[in-house]
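tool_call: predict_structure(chain=1)
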Amino acid sequence: MPNATQLFTIGHSNQEWSSFVQTLNRFSIPLVVDVRSRPHSSRHPQFSQPEFEGALREAGLKYLFLGEELGGRPADAKAYRDDGMVDYRARRQSYGFRAGIERVLKELEAGPLVLMCAEEDPLTCHRFLMICPELVASGITPQHVRKGSVIETQSEAEDRLLVDHGFGDVTRSSLFAAGRGEALEQAYVRQAEKCAFRVDPSLVEYW
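tool_result:
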């Protein structure tokens, strides 16, 4: 069975390569699961393929690309709404996404791993908004590695999301936390409206 507390997420942001590797080693993370649809960064080329994978291996770390299954810019037109925005809830029901989650759970049985995308703040990234709810439903408790190697737990990130969208009365410390689940679902939807990838609606069927 997967270890429920050994799954981390991270956004590479503008980290220096040495700092990134040190962070992975600090938390004894041997495997980087890349969930970027497009594993390229012109501003931060140290995180671009194919050099990125090679550099990880030179550092004694493993690499797995799941951007096609778990990326925030899916190729499947069915994952997009009529207005051109990725529908995270619809994407979670797809075969490709389900296959990606199953692969993550299988890899987690062997040891810790980190889901990597670009954004430092998980609340602005599909790894939190699209992937993490499914992991939580599978009994996994993601831990988010923030700037300075600070860990933000999934519950802490969810509380921050709730506060950002006016649901501070149902955070874990609230007397009314019984309404947390429904409020959290609304907060996820609202945050996705702000952060999810969009294309020109006229291009959706060709995306």
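agent: The longest strand covers residues 7-11. Proceeding to next step.
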